[in-house]
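I am writing to request your help with a piece of structural work I have in hand. A protein sequence and the structure tokens that stand for its backbone fold form the material at issue. Please examine both parts with care and let me know of anything in them that strikes you as inconsistent. The record follows directly beneath this note.
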Amino acid sequence: MTTALGLGTYRVRDLPEAAKAALSSGADWIDTAPNYLRGQAERQLKPVLAAHPLIPVSTKVGFFTPEQARRALAAGVLTAQEAQAGHCLSPRAVLWQAQQSRTLLGRAPDITFVHNPEHGLHHARDLEVRLYDAFVALEKCVDRGLTKGYGVATWTALHENLISMDRLTGVARQAGRDGHRLKAVQLPLSIVQIGPLVDAVHGHGFLPSVPSHGIDVFASAPLHGGDLLGMLPDPVAEELVPGASPLRLALGFVASAPGVRRLLLSASSRAHWADATKAVEEPLSDKHVKGIASAFAP
């Protein structure tokens, strides 16, 4: 299997059971965030991580639940306006949230993602300033043992070309010089959110350049929250990739993209994980990838 599978916990309901199914089925990563499961995801993962000390885990900084915002406000970490917004990437907020995550998870996460840094912004320059401040704070977090590295988890910044990989790594070098600890980007990639994948098929966009930057790509929502399988009839999958199921086509297409290191799934049962593992065992051929890209390109 050239592309690994990890558990994404955004849509998971019973997190301990989902983690148990994922890890027993070969998933090699768990991704979470402080605001997932109404703020309980990290706490629920602590015993899971204690029982599987070698499984990497990633979390995020940026979004707060109302209760987390209330505590941060009381601690002087957030202003009233920031608490009301529910999202903040100021250095003091990044440090505080990283400290909270380190305690709740029971160990330092392998990656702490800057969560949707484009939130509330409209200009690329403002995004770079926000990222620089967050990266400087996260470099300090690495030095203090609060995380082992950091990344960017974005919903639209890369899709909408608000920042390039060159600029992203450039900001990291400004924050941490050549020894910066920027390790990964996470973004939705699927037949629905297909733009970067179509670009990559034609040798354009940021995905083909990712390996040269030494950055891993985590593809979130490759099944578009599970909705994609209901949107993709069997005959369509069979026509585009003979013998393929909709799951094979959907996951195989994303897994075959250059630079994609890991797909994050919210599968909850061993049967679902077995099907997903089989779907990405072998990359699709270039012919089939181009055919899918042509069929679903906007």
About this structure: The chain has one domain: 4-296.
